[in-house]
# Entry
Amino acid sequence: MTVAGSRQLRVFPSLDEMLGELTKRRPFKTADSLSGSRFESAMYQGEPMILKYISVDDDWIMRASGDLRCRQLTLFESGVLDRLPPSIDHATVAVAPFVSSSGHRGGAFLLHDVSASLIPPGRTLIELETHLRFLDHMSDLHAAYWGWDDAVELFPLAHHYVLLTPTMAALEQERASREAVPPAVAQGWTAMRTGRPATYGALVELARDPGPLASALASTPHTLIHADWKLGNLGEHHDGRTVLLDWDRSGAAPATFDLAWYLAVNCDRIPLSKEATIDAYRVALQKRFIDIDGWWHRQLALTLLGAFLMLGWSKTGDPGEFAWWEARLADGLQHL
# Structure
C-alpha cells in the first residue's frame, strides 16, 4: 500500500487488501449514475463510505472511448490530482486495481459519502450563488493546471467527440446493452435527421471524423479538465468547497471544454443566460491572471461546436434550446 499526495489518498496494491479494511458492505444503485458502474455502501475506519467499481465490462462510456486500462485509476495513482486547488474536493479516499471478468484492468474507488452535499436531482434552478461558485472553482481548477501536458495518457481529446454518436448507440445495441443512454442517443440523432437534416448532416460528418475539431483545438491553450461538470457530479460543502465526482474522462483539453459541457448538460437548471455564464467564467479566469488574448473566441466557438456535437441529440425536443446551439454551428465550423 502507498499513500499518494498531500490529501493522503491510499493506493492499495489489490482489491482484496482494500476490501479487508471495509465492513458492512451493501450493494446499491445511485439515481444519477448513467455509466453502468457498480456501487456498494461500506464502513471504513468508522466512517460511512461509497465503493464504486468501474471496468470496461460494465461501463458503456469506457467501451465507447476504448478505455481498456481504466484511465481514472491511472489518474489517481499518478498523483496528478495532488495539485488540485483547495476549492475542489474529489471525495476519493482510496483506490485499488482489480481484473475484470473479461481480463481487463478495472478500478475500485472508495469515496466519502458526500450524498448530503450533492445538488439534489430535479428540474428546479440552482441558486445563483451556487452557479457562480461552480464557475469560479472551475476556473480555479483550470488556472492551477494551465499549460498542463498529459504525460500519463489519460482521456484523449478526440475521444470525447465519439462517445454520444449513432455509431456508439449501434454498437451497444448489438451487444444487447441494457443501459438507458445509448438508445436515447439513437432516438435523438434520428429526430435530428428528420427535423433538422442540414444540421444533422454537418454534425454526423464531424462525429464520423472528429479529427479536424481536435486538431483545431490543439492549437489553443490546454489545461487539465474534468470533462463532466453535470449537476449530478457536483455538490457544496458547508465551508464553500465544491464536490466534484467522477473523473473518468479527465485529461488535457481546452479550458472552455468544461464550460461548454456545463452549459449544455445543465441547460434546464442554470439561473443565468448562457451568455452571462460564459462572461462570468471568463472574468473568473482573468482574475487568475490567465491572458485570453488571441485564443479565447476561437476556442470558445470550437468547444461550443463540440458540445453541440456531443449533446445536440438531447435537445431535439426543445426548439428554443436547440436553436441556441444551432446558431453556434456555423461559427464553430468556420474555425476548422
